[in-house]
Write a structure and sequence with these properties.
By secondary structure, the chain is an alpha/beta fold.
Length: 82
């Protein structure tokens, strides 16, 4: 399966990416800072996008293209302490 993880560089996102890789899935990891992403694996496609501004979410080669045709979608939300 190929899944899309938004916020892949956050604590919850990193857990979701690691879990997907253990299951043998391919991952589209969406993050504002792909250069800082700590996990290196051939099954990860890093995508620079910002859900707060919409940058990189739509258009040719954007997240919407990479997520097209996915039959399963899940949403998790982590928390951040301030």
């Amino acid at each position: 399966m190929r899944i899309v993880v938004f916020g892949a560089n956050g604590a919850t996102g990193r857990i979701l990416v690691a879990d997907a890789l253990v299951r043998g899935d391919e991952v589209v990891a969406v993050t504002r800072r792909p250069d800082d992403f700590p996990v290196k694996d051939a099954r990860i496609e890093l995508v620079r996008a910002d859900v707060t501004s919409g940058t990189g979410l739509v258009g040719p080669g954007a997240v919407t293209d990479r997520a097209a045709g996915r039959s399963r979608r899940r949403c998790w939300a982590g928390s951040r302490r301030y």
